[in-house]
Amino acid sequence: MQSPRSASTAVVRSLHNHSKVQEQYLLEVVVAQSDVTEIDVDVLVVNLFEGVTKPDGATGAVDSALGGVISELISDGEITGSASELTLIHTPNSAYANFKPARVLVAGLGSSDSFDTDGIRRVSASVIRKLRSSGVKHAATIVHGAGIGGLETTSAAQATVEGALLGAYRFLKYRTTDKKRKADVGKLTIVEVDSSKVADISSGIERGVAYSHAEILARDLVNEPANKLAPADLAATAEKVAKENDLDYTVLEEADVAKLGMGAYIGVSQGGPRPLKFIHMSYEGDAGDPQNNLWLIGKGITFDSGGISIKPGAGMGKMKGDMGGGASVIAAIQAISQLKPKLNVHVVCAATDNMPGGSAQRPGDVVTAMNGMTIEIDNTDAEGRLTLADAIGYAKSRGAERIVDVATLTGAARIALGDGVSPVFGNDDELVNSVLDTSTTVGESMWRLPLDSVTKRQNASKIADLKNTGGRGGGSTTAAHFIADFAGDTPWVHIDVAATSMLDSTRGWMPAGATGVPTRSLIELAMNLGG
């Protein structure tokens, strides 16, 4: 076996440099064909399933090179293989002359019967944070789950990379006095002894990097304070993504959308001083068939005070993240353009603030949407659906064949499903099932809720075609019914991420703060539809 210095090495660099929103973290991810005992790194990461008493594969090779140390620790009960158990073993060259890594980290994977790509992401996130806390600069890891776990190599490699990149994420732009902060890991080498698997691992790294960078961009945008991210700033980020990835890009100003008749959108924006920005980005992956398209529409409220129907003060600061849907679709098209599915993808974000200024719309007002429907404003805090109504009208006027909208829309979503699952609604079973399947693949849980005829009646208005709220009961469903009236017969899915877009504490590869959900689901959907 060649040493890693002379081995054939495939390299994919993971550079978190697509967003200038915060100071950049650079992580280089490479794959190297080598014996694990010969990789010269600060820490080598291997793994163990629960219940294994005699390790084999790469872990077994390490155990043999260390004279059975791992087996002894298993026998003593110090290593059990339980999920996310991390055991660091120091392996100085003076003690193990033929073993290059300075330390070994044994990561527990839990039960092999239930292990999946979500398990890979969780353990990889735990590992990268452990490595950072230990001051590691260069680590190597085997692909979790691709051996005894029985998972396909490319998917396992992708999940390993996603767990590392997303698990390492920190938003530190405004933390200026933390002198004891540990530096991030600089390089991660995925080591594989079998040369026939290197190409598959490289492919997994490429996808994992693209998916992760996109979700990191979405996180950065959502984490930005509202005074630092106006509609114009969101539009500037979209323009930067478009220029770097050769995308078509257009921003409509208020006069432009007024000519198009977007009264619902303009009504939301009129209470604040910062001008609206209607963002449209497009990727042409199937120029010969314009109808082969997917429109991703994201709610882009850069701050939501509730308008005249003002929100309670407690927790209002989180309303800086009310553009999470817009962030996710802008980020998703970045990766889509890099991975190049055979599909035409359009992104729309009707960005604005919702403020209670003297010119703000009032409860009881009536506005007219782009499609001509009139809307009674029952509550100015039900503003996101108004912007989505005109965004969908715009998409339909330009030949949208499939629409997926993403919005931090209703507090009722948290009441219904908690903060671990996003409710999904839709008018087309095939498209809904495609979204649900992709969410399962990438580990962004979703659950379909019904669009029933009873809750639909709650949106009825006595003076207009409909009103913008249906009351407290079934709030997520009545909001979806409202949007469905504008989608009409066009296949459409609505994802409500109000509860899942931000978390109060770290959960696996999802950090406290912005999660970036459902960016990777949208990328996966485009890849599947354009496969």
Please give a quick description of this structure.
This protein has helices at 57-65, 69-75, 117-133, 153-167, 198-223, 231-244, 254-259, 263-269, 324-339, 384-397, 412-417, 429-442, 453-456, 475-487, 519-529, and strands at residues 9-12, 28-33, 43-48, 86-90, 103-108, 138-141, 187-192, 248-252, 277-284, 293-304, 344-354, 366-368, 374-376, 403-407, 422-426, 446-448, 466-467, 492-496, 502-503, 513-514.
CATH level-3 fold name of the largest domain? Aminopeptidase
Number of domains: 2
- Sheet with most strands: strand arrangement: 8-9-11-10-14-18-15-16
Indicate the structural class.
Answer: alpha/beta
Would you report the number of β strands?
A: 20
Q: Sheet with the most strands?
A: 8 strands, mixed
Tally of DSSP helical segments: 15
Binding site for Mn(2+) 1: 304, 381, 383
EC number: 3.4.11.1, 3.4.11.10
Organism: Candidatus Lucifugimonas marina
Active site: 311, 385
Describe it for me?
The protein has 531 residues and is α/β, with parallel strands linked by helices. It has 2 domains: 185 residues, Leucine Aminopeptidase, subunit E, domain 1, CATH 3.40.220; 315 residues, 3-Layer(aba) Sandwich (Aminopeptidase), CATH 3.40.630. 34% of the residues lie in helices and 19% in strands. The protein has 15 helices and 20 strands. Strands 8-9-11-10-14-18-15-16 form an 8-stranded mixed beta sheet, with helices on both faces. Strands 1-2-7-6-3-5-4 form a 7-stranded mixed beta sheet, sandwiched between helices. Helix 6 runs parallel beside helix 9 and helix 10 runs parallel beside helix 14. The two termini are 38 Å apart. The relative contact order is 0.11. The N terminus is likely disordered.
